[in-house]
Design a protein that fits this description.
Shape: globular
Strand content: 15-25%
Radius of gyration: 19 Å
């Protein structure tokens, strides 16, 4: 068995969709694809205790691969879109880890939502949706190879205007998938004789992992940065929403 240090180990942490995913990925230029790059993987599919789970899984992965934190080449963090709390936890862990260690750690932002779409698009055009509220969520479009469908990076969409526009533009052959239940989206699609398939969040995370491993390897080292990745929240925090409401109120403008 080759030494672990013949690889370029990058720690990957993500809590943006459901629970926690932690992996150590080989970002070297070796002839590996997808899951072949995953040196170790662990998950915790619960919403509570995410920070403790990330810490525990990271320690477990390093221990089982017999490597130290200072031997990691970089850190890839799930920046969303997805769960506000999950993204916060992942970024806080990354910040705390690099700050406490005193070692500059180059970082890369990755998106489980976009990676899920890219993985499915290997066989067909796909639009993947992620609900945030009753009326709003995120959507991304990934075309199949040689398709004329236009790709779309993850963006906020609403069921009143943007979703109907998307459905009108996407061909009938394009798969429509919601990560988790989004009843209003299904109703809007049904009115246009389109069906939304529902994918369990845990399944989306499994599908996305191999694609993200390839993205991490493709980005190493030129796209890894010393700064924290920018989060892509599904919504503002409660405190930020209150501040925005106060700022935009008539009394605040007087």
């Amino acid at each position: 068995m080759a030494s672990i240090m013949t690889n370029v180990p990058v720690l990957f942490v993500d809590a943006s969709i459901l629970g926690v995913q932690v992996a150590i990925v080989d970002a070297s230029s070796a002839d590996k694809v997808g899951t072949e790059r995953i040196l170790w993987h662990g998950s915790h599919n619960e919403n509570m205790g995410a920070l403790q789970a990330i810490s525990r899984l990271t320690q477990q992965g390093l221990r089982e691969l017999n490597i130290r934190f200072d031997q990691l080449a970089g850190l890839a963090v799930g920046s969303g879109p997805g769960s506000f709390t999950g993204i916060k936890v992942g970024l806080a862990f990354a910040y705390g880890l690099t700050t406490a260690s005193g070692k500059p750690m180059p970082m890369l932002a990755v998106s489980a939502l976009e990676a899920t779409a890219l993985a499915i698009a290997e066989s067909s055009d796909v639009a993947v949706f992620l609900p945030a509220t009753k009326t709003h969520g995120f959507a991304t479009v990934a075309p199949a190879p040689d398709s004329s469908v236009q790709s779309m990076a993850a963006a906020l969409v609403d069921c009143d205007q943007k979703v109907p526009e998307m459905l009108a533009d996407l061909p009938a052959s394009c798969q429509l998938i919601s990560i988790g239940e989004w009843p209003l989206l299904s109703e809007v699609a049904a009115k246009r004789h389109r069906k939304i398939a529902v994918m369990a969040p845990a399944q989306a995370c499994r599908i996305a992992l191999a694609t993200m491993a390839d993205q991490i390897a493709a980005a190493w080292p030129q796209n890894f940065k010393p700064d924290m990745p920018e989060p892509k929240y599904l919504r503002l925090s409660t405190a930020e929403e209150k501040l925005l409401t106060q700022t935009n109120s008539p009394s605040a403008k007087e």
